[in-house]
Amino acid sequence: MKKRTFIALVLSLPSKNKTVRMRIWRALHGIGCGVLRDGVYLLPASASQVSDFVDLESDVKAAGGFAMTVELNLKASTQFDRVRKLFDRTSEYTSLVTQINTAKKTLARLGQPRAYMLAKRLRRSFQEIVETDFYPGQANRQAQDALSGLESAVQRLFSADEPRKVKGRIRRLDPVRYQGRIWATREHPWIDRLASAWLIKRFIDRKARFRWIDKPKDRPKGALGFDFDGADFTHVGNRVTFEALLVSFGLDSNPALNRLAATIHFLDVGGIPVDDAKGLETILKGARNKARSDDELVLAAAGIFDHVYSAYRSTESTP
């Protein structure tokens, strides 16, 4: 029954104060209120934006108007369905998908910097809709798929050195056969390669040695390759290299590693947003700016990933 509970802000403003009326209306619109009728605005009781009603109520009263909040419990499913339609965001998602499809056609003409900026702007627009989409449905999923497709297109178009994903199943491997090996990947490692190097050293081959190569053909004889075309471990299907390594060595049953994998996936190829992603990316950028070599960067990044993994483990173990 809790999901059928709403908080209503009932208000009346002095008709002469147009400035206050416009400010209150914009605030109500911004937090995603449903309009039951003139002067009656609703939010699901579970919505975080409900706390904004307190400030709005105070603002209305300060302007000489009337305001109060009321809790509504809709027991009948028909009532709930009618009220839920007040929060339908289909038209907003449809508009966004149209913008995304148009953007796809212009990527090559825009060039790399502007294409990346456009994809990020559309991702922010998607997030703004999501924040007030209290009952996400098919339209949300369609917009998410369209946005992921755009981000993948940008990645393919402007990241020629990124490995192309391959098809097929990922075979489970015996880690005993992968000890004390040389692991080679492209130089100037970034998100997926940094995380993969940490995973290899931390969970797969503690005596691993890394070689940074310019081209796939530069891989040392006998070395295991990761995250480049033709490597032993690379993108498979929708999985980035970090995720492929998890599955290959039976580490995908570790909840903390899976959480980290979701973050790495988003930062590497886009997709479903992860709250921690931007913070991790910022810290890694700082490490990259200070590192004087790829080895130094991998070492610094390993410490960062250790901390993130430890935090995820403690979260998973908290009752």
Question: Features of this protein?
Answer:
three-stranded parallel beta sheet; four-stranded antiparallel beta sheet; single chain; alpha/beta; 319 residues; elongated; 11 helices; Alpha-Beta Plaits
Could you characterize what this model shows?
This protein is α/β, with parallel strands linked by helices. The protein folds into three domains: 2-86, Alpha-Beta Plaits (2-Layer Sandwich); 88-158; 175-317, no CATH class. Helix content is 53%, strand content 12%. The chain is built from eleven helices and seven strands. It is elongated. The model has no long low-confidence stretch (mean pLDDT 91).
The helix fraction, in percent, is 40-55%
Regarding quaternary structure, how should these chains be classified?
A: single chain
Q: Uncertain runs with pLDDT below 50, 5 residues or more?
A: none
Structural class: alpha/beta
Rounded Rg: 25 Å
User: First CA to last CA: what distance?
Assistant: 25 Å
- Count every helix, treating DSSP H or I runs of 4 or more residues as helices: 11
Number of strands: 7
How would the blueprint of this fold be written?
Blueprint (H helix, E strand, L loop, with lengths): L4 E8 L5 H13 L3 E4 L2 E5 L7 H11 L3 E8 L3 H8 L5 H21 L1 H20 L6 H21 L23 E5 L4 H14 L4 E5 L10 E2 L15 H8 L6 H15 L7 H14 L3 H24 L2
Parallel strand pairs: 5-6, 5-7
Antiparallel strand pairs: 1-3, 1-4, 2-3
